[in-house]
């Protein structure tokens, strides 16, 4: 049964802090414009109702790829066998720092890509060797692999000393809040920081960043998110998140808004157990969802599903495995992009039977870091072969993933990484801190 939210709350909550809802900085590389007006049809008599033409191949979707890229992706996916299709919806984990291990995993299992963690990082040369090896392993596909990393700033910065030290994302919220009704300095600083982070990641060979965090924290009682959250205020959080989305987009890196429907108000850690988000739908619409709605409206290409028990949606079932949670994201917030699970190796879901199959059936497009990547691939392949997993559902998922990678390939080709990416990142980090301290 469909659950209706107070859509007015979602539509207005993100825009009350500022008189205008634009999060761009108005610069030459501000890629936030999405005009929706319709021009008159040439030659049509005055007063005549004329049906608008259908979308062309160059028409962009709300989340990035063009209609043509979606068509190309669908054609590529339609030709995949079960094992290849299963691979295209998995972002694997691997152990150690040997680039060949990551590359072999991608090649053997036809993976969409891998997630790099702090345990996989030694130094910049080793990171580049890893991302290049993975790219070569996927080189004959015609689109780049997903090579992602948690690089939020603050405590969650898996590159360690290899990357620029950015402050926790709470500083972005502070910078936005410092703007007041008329200022833009804070938003400019947030956007510049996200863009600089994205360019530095691309310089190292990454195509995805698992950020920004859209969770609205409750403060000290929140053991997991804390300063990873931009704010305790949903409106401030929404502006910070949407602004970061525009910065990552300008850097031609795929951002991942997380952890839907909101991890900041729970008092347990999903790395260990399944937390309960005990709020009714109206409360979710007022507090947890506005930052996600704002990000979606700003063109977020990917949203990460949290491992959260939300009784108002699906009692006892993690949102990452719940059809009701995916329906909320897509039907109520209008999200059309790639829905990726949080790591399937976390305690909240790791003990469940075949969470990879459950997540895909529920509506996930990408499975992030299963406990055992090879086992998860085998389980998904078998579920496809037996018909337990609907092939059309998994093809839909893989099509979104491939289309987004085609977008990333096109945008990155048009936006080369500057030679001084790291000095720019250092300046951007300092500017962000200064904007927050005003």
TrEMBL record:
Reaction(s) catalysed (UniProt annotation): Hydrolysis of terminal non-reducing N-acetyl-D-hexosamine residues in N-acetyl-beta-D-hexosaminides
Keyword terms: Glycosidase, Hydrolase, Signal
Keyword Protein transport on entry: no
Domain Glycoside hydrolase family 3 N-terminal intervals: 100-403
Signal peptide (residue range): 1-19
Low complexity composition bias: residue spans: 37-51
Membrane spanning residue stretches: none
Enzyme Commission (EC) number: 3.2.1.52
Region described as Disordered: 26-66
Recorded superkingdom: Bacteria
The family this protein is said to belong to: Belongs to the glycosyl hydrolase 3 family.
Protein name stated in the entry: beta-N-acetylhexosaminidase
Source species taxonomy: Bacteria, Bacillati, Actinomycetota, Actinomycetes, Propionibacteriales
């Amino acid at each position: 049964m469909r659950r209706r939210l107070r859509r007015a709350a979602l539509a207005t909550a993100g825009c009350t802090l500022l008189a205008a809802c634009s999060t761009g900085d108005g610069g030459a590389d501000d890629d936030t414009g999405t005009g929706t007006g319709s021009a008159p049809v040439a030659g049509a008599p005055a007063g005549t109702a004329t049906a608008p033409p259908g979308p062309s191949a160059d028409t962009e979707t709300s989340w990035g790829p063009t209609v043509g890229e979606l068509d190309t992706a669908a054609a590529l996916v339609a030709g995949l066998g079960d094992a290849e299709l299963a691979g295209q919806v998995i972002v694997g984990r691997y152990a150690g720092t040997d680039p060949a291990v990551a590359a072999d995993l991608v090649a053997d299992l036809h993976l969409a890509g891998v997630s790099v963690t702090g345990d996989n990082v030694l130094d910049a040369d080793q990171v580049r060797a890893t991302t290049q090896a993975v790219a070569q392993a996927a080189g004959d596909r015609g689109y780049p692999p997903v090579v992602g990393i948690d690089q939020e700033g603050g405590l969650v910065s898996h590159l360690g000393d290899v990357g620029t030290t950015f402050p926790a994302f709470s500083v972005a919220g502070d910078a936005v809040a410092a703007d007041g009704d008329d200022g833009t300095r804070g938003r400019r600083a947030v956007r510049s920081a996200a863009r600089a982070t994205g360019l530095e990641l691309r310089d190292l060979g990454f195509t995805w960043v698992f950020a920004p965090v859209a969770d609205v924290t409750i403060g000290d009682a929140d053991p997991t998110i804390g300063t990873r959250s931009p704010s305790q205020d949903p409106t401030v959080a929404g502006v910070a998140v949407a602004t970061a989305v525009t910065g990552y987009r300008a850097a031609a890196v795929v951002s991942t808004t997380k952890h839907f429907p909101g991890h900041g108000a729970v008092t347990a850690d999903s790395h260990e157990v399944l937390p309960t988000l005990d709020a009714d739908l109206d409360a979710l619409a007022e507090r947890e969802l506005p930052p996600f709605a704002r990000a979606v409206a700003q063109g977020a290409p990917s949203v990460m599903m949290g491992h959260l028990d939300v009784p108002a949606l699906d009692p006892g079932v993690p949102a990452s495995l719940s059809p009701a949670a995916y329906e909320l994201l897509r039907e109520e917030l209008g999200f059309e992009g790639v829905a990726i699970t949080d790591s399937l190796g976390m305690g909240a879901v790791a003990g469940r039977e075949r969470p990879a199959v459950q997540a895909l059936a529920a509506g996930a497009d990408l499975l992030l870091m299963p406990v055992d990547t090879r086992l998860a691939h085998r389980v998904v392949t078998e579920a496809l072969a037996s018909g337990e997993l609907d092939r059309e559902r998994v093809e839909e998922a893989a099509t979104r993933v491939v289309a987004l990678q085609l977008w990333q390939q096109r945008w990155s080709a048009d936006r080369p990484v500057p030679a001084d990416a790291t000095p720019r990142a250092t300046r951007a980090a300092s500017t962000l801190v200064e904007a927050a301290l005003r």
